[in-house]
Amino acid sequence: MSDSKTGAGLPVVLLHALPLDSSMWDESARALRARGHRVLTVDQRGFGGTPLPADAVPSLDLVADDLARELDRRGVDSAVVVGCSMGGYTAMSFLRRHPHRVRALALFAARGTADTPKGAAARLRFADLISDDSLRARIVTDTTPSLLGATTRAQRPRLLAQVTALAQTAEPHSVAWAQRAIAAREASLAALSATDVPAVVAQGEEDELVTLDEARETAAALSNGRLVTLPGVGHLAPLEAPGKTVEILTSLLAAAQAFRPAGATTC
């Protein structure tokens, strides 16, 4: 985990996508720190050197509780919680389990529903395949391009190569564990409906893994949320469109600074 303690702005937690690590947020983190915010970029269990307990049953609730303990250790009571893909699912688990600790919420490329049986089965099959030494390299090469939009793939081949290299170096048992945890997650629409904190759902128009209709459904569940669509962007907006990502988060942080919960009084 990287943590900048300087600045008087709201603390911001950035949660990464699968199969990447917290470095995917480096550019966004630098920009937010320059604006005075304390930014924590978190490596979820099994990634970026964070250990994966051998006996843990795959569950994003465990990852959410990891984050709560890390915030305790860092002396952070509450934060703006931002997640991309797997990070978004962890953010929603955190909201369900620790709602009072979420000052605002940003979800990039993450649906509020649980996986369909077909979708969960596909994740579980991927988890089995990625654990096979003889198949891993081909599986990563075949599936990684879908993380980026068609425009990015065509115009930024270096980014595709970078993301593929990161995917190749990810610990396969960690990737498999995470896929099984995501497949087992519960729906979060009720938790999203129950919160009134400022929120944003950001969706790449070229995302091949989460549909725009799914993003609309997620955003519609949020009483104080909005949907932002990103033309020419796929599943990884923080890498494909870092400037737009920072713009979205800066707007959300301003809303969070001004937000007063229902029933709150002012002096």
TrEMBL record:
Alphabetized Pfam families for the sequence: Abhydrolase_1
Keyword terms of this UniProt record: Hydrolase
Transmembrane helix in keyword set: no
GO function terms (MF aspect): hydrolase activity
Domain AB hydrolase-1 residue range list: 11-242
Alphabetized InterPro entries for the sequence: AB_hydrolase_1, AB_hydrolase_fold, AB_hydrolase_sf
Name of the protein described by the UniProt record: Alpha/beta fold hydrolase
